[in-house]
Design brief:
This protein has 12 helices and 9 strands. The protein has 301 residues and is an alpha/beta fold. Helix 6 packs across helix 7, helix 6 packs across helix 9 and helix 10 runs parallel beside helix 11.
Length: 301
């Protein structure tokens, strides 16, 4: 199956600082590119546990006794690590967002440029397809989704038009509704923004990400590394906040003396982006932003 080349691979391995006998997590297995490189860096006593809710990823499972593929959403990280006898690990890697493989499959309905069923589910065996979600969502909620998850300006008209056109069962039908609102400049990307917003809502991506990031804190050993690549500001903001404040929303807890109780030392002052050579090889990596942090002891004073 066609999966993109792993993004920022050398940088990921560098920040993970892999120990040969350590236990590591690839939270977004996909085509297995990052996992293969991580296994190569591990010794015979090392261990790699990967997560992916997409059934297609199972075809890429690695034949290696040190490797375990968990066919579930990384939302349940903490629970499955306990189940697999690894309640705390030495490093966690996550490459967020939708994969090139998913985008390039018309039958998955992720991309407006391909005609296919209006599905958009990361796991096509669970949850509601986008066509059903749209048939149940209220107009105010759809406006909010378009504005917050797609950065769509003046979303009221688009939301009303989408709901008026129901039922919508294919990507082409949804694209046809959006086209009258498109113009040169910013609105030329409107179909991409609308599809992104609906996809994020259908897959509960922000809710899932926050649950995953919260689980990363207790799941890492002291000295363990968290490395996350995000592809839009909604993801990146939550990752940055977790690493700096210890939570996705709000400020860090403080002890009785007012000192911040932060569980991480940030290793990336600014997010790391791809270089020109990698960008030429993989244009979809353009928006990738890598952040890394190391788990530290929190002193409660």
């Amino acid at each position: 199956m066609s999966y993109h080349k792993p993004v920022l691979l050398a940088e990921c391995l560098n920040f993970l600082n892999l120990r040969p006998d350590g236990t590591y997590i690839d939270a977004t297995f996909g085509g297995g590119g990052h996992s293969r490189a991580m296994l190569e860096a591990l010794g015979s006593k090392g261990r790699l546990i990967a997560f992916d809710q997409d059934p297609d990823a199972g075809a890429n499972a690695l034949e290696d006794s040190r490797f375990t593929l968990v066919p579930h959403n990384f939302e349940h990280l903490k629970r499955f690590l306990k189940l697999h006898g690894a309640p705390q690990v030495d490093g966690i890697l996550a490459d967020l967002g939708v994969s090139s493989h998913q985008l390039d499959q018309p039958e998955r309905g992720f991309a407006h440029k391909y005609e296919g069923p209006l599905d958009m589910r990361m796991n096509p065996e669970a949850g509601q397809p986008a066509s059903e979600w749209l048939s149940e969502v209220g107009e105010l909620e759809l406006r909010k989704v378009l504005a917050e998850f797609g950065d769509v300006e003046r979303p009221a008209g688009i939301a009303a038009a989408i709901l008026k056109a129901l039922p919508l069962t294919t990507t082409a039908e949804l694209r046809l509704v959006i086209e009258p609102f498109c113009s040169r400049g910013r609105n030329a990307k409107l179909p991409t923004r609308v599809f992104q917003a609906i996809r994020i809502a259908v897959n509960r991506e922000m809710e899932v990400l926050e649950a995953f990031l919260a689980d990363c804190v207790p799941s890492l050993k002291t000295g363990g590394r968290l490395v996350v690549m995000s592809y839009h500001s909604l993801e990146d903001r939550r990752v940055k906040n977790l690493m700096r404040e210890g939570r996705c929303q709000g400020e860090a807890d403080r002890d009785s003396f007012g000192r911040r109780l932060v569980p991480f030392e940030v290793l990336t002052r600014k997010p790391v982006s791809v270089g020109l050579e990698e960008l030429e090889e993989n244009p979809r990596s353009r928006s990738a932003r890598l952040r890394a942090a190391e788990k530290i002891e929190v002193s409660h004073g």
